[in-house]
Amino acid sequence: MPELPEVETIRNQLNKVLRGKIIKEIEVLREKSFSGDPTAMRGWKIQSIERKSKILEVLFENQPDIVIVHLKMTGQLIYVNGEKRILGGHPSPDWVNQLPSKHTRVIWNFDDGTKLFFNDMRVFGWMKIINFKEYEKYTRKTVPDITEKGFTTKYLFDILNRSEKPIKLVLLDQDKIGGLGNIYVNDALYLAKIRPDRKSDSLERDEGISLHKAICTIIKRGIKYGGASASNYVQVSGLGGTYQDHFLVYKKEGEKCKRCGGVIKKIKLGGRGTFYCSDCQK
Ligand SMILES: [Zn+2]
């Protein structure tokens, strides 16, 4: 599943190519994947691509409506300009194969002949036309994401203090903090020397401070490396991010901890693979 750094990476890349593009036609191949009237978008000119947590926001010049996009489990965005492709999201052979593919759900055709493909194998992702003011009202009430100013040490410490659940599950709860996913939460807890299965409210203040710092560090690192695309296929084609080469504990069970020499263990928490060093994470 694309996590925040992967979504931020595709946002940055699409911003470089989509600004100023004028929509000629939107083809919706699977109704479930697009909500709103696609014909209304004819002639709309893209102003910029923004992001809130894992939701991409496409803003248009002089339009009260925006389009929001969630890639969910298997969504991909692939911009095609002749031979050139800009892409992100779930890595799969569709990244380099003929498009549209059988997973293509929506195609944005621009008036210069370039195209943006929204592929989604499992069809959990979506594109929605929504009034910007209504959307803003809604997002103002939502929790901060980990790259926003509202995600402070105090905010983190307060939500952790209110739960007895394992700390990792609280950190992954998108109703409490936006944008933290399984890869980066494992590495952040390692960096902060905190066991993922520890009771959330057992955290001391100084641990809360170092955890906040660790989350910010790991997310910045994820964005710096263009996110992770742990797939053999992607490495062969040279596409996608490289954070997978910098995992600290994620998918490293059985390997030695670089900090203390202990062995990295794997357990399941909330059904998700959880990795930690049983020696230096307390
Ligand atoms: Zn260790």
TrEMBL record:
<dbReference type="InterPro" id="IPR035937">
    <property type="entry name" value="FPG_N"/>
</dbReference>
<protein>
    <submittedName>
        <fullName>Formamidopyrimidine-DNA glycosylase</fullName>
    </submittedName>
</protein>
<dbReference type="InterPro" id="IPR015887">
    <property type="entry name" value="DNA_glyclase_Znf_dom_DNA_BS"/>
</dbReference>
<dbReference type="GO" id="GO:0006284">
    <property type="term" value="P:base-excision repair"/>
</dbReference>
<dbReference type="GO" id="GO:0008270">
    <property type="term" value="F:zinc ion binding"/>
</dbReference>
<keyword id="KW-0238">DNA-binding</keyword>
<keyword id="KW-0227">DNA damage</keyword>
<keyword id="KW-0479">Metal-binding</keyword>
<dbReference type="InterPro" id="IPR015886">
    <property type="entry name" value="H2TH_FPG"/>
</dbReference>
<dbReference type="GO" id="GO:0034039">
    <property type="term" value="F:8-oxo-7,8-dihydroguanine DNA N-glycosylase activity"/>
</dbReference>
<dbReference type="GO" id="GO:0003684">
    <property type="term" value="F:damaged DNA binding"/>
</dbReference>
<comment type="subunit">
    <text>Monomer.</text>
</comment>
<comment type="similarity">
    <text>Belongs to the FPG family.</text>
</comment>
<keyword id="KW-0456">Lyase</keyword>
<dbReference type="GO" id="GO:0140078">
    <property type="term" value="F:class I DNA-(apurinic or apyrimidinic site) endonuclease activity"/>
</dbReference>
<dbReference type="InterPro" id="IPR020629">
    <property type="entry name" value="FPG_Glyclase"/>
</dbReference>
<keyword id="KW-0326">Glycosidase</keyword>
<keyword id="KW-0378">Hydrolase</keyword>
<dbReference type="Pfam" id="PF01149">
    <property type="entry name" value="Fapy_DNA_glyco"/>
</dbReference>
<feature type="domain" description="FPG-type">
    <location>
        <begin position="248"/>
        <end position="282"/>
    </location>
</feature>
<keyword id="KW-0863">Zinc-finger</keyword>
<dbReference type="InterPro" id="IPR010979">
    <property type="entry name" value="Ribosomal_uS13-like_H2TH"/>
</dbReference>
<dbReference type="InterPro" id="IPR012319">
    <property type="entry name" value="FPG_cat"/>
</dbReference>
<keyword id="KW-0862">Zinc</keyword>
<dbReference type="InterPro" id="IPR010663">
    <property type="entry name" value="Znf_FPG/IleRS"/>
</dbReference>
<keyword id="KW-0234">DNA repair</keyword>
<dbReference type="InterPro" id="IPR000214">
    <property type="entry name" value="Znf_DNA_glyclase/AP_lyase"/>
</dbReference>
<keyword id="KW-0511">Multifunctional enzyme</keyword>
<dbReference type="Pfam" id="PF06827">
    <property type="entry name" value="zf-FPG_IleRS"/>
</dbReference>
<feature type="domain" description="Formamidopyrimidine-DNA glycosylase catalytic">
    <location>
        <begin position="2"/>
        <end position="125"/>
    </location>
</feature>
<dbReference type="Pfam" id="PF06831">
    <property type="entry name" value="H2TH"/>
</dbReference>
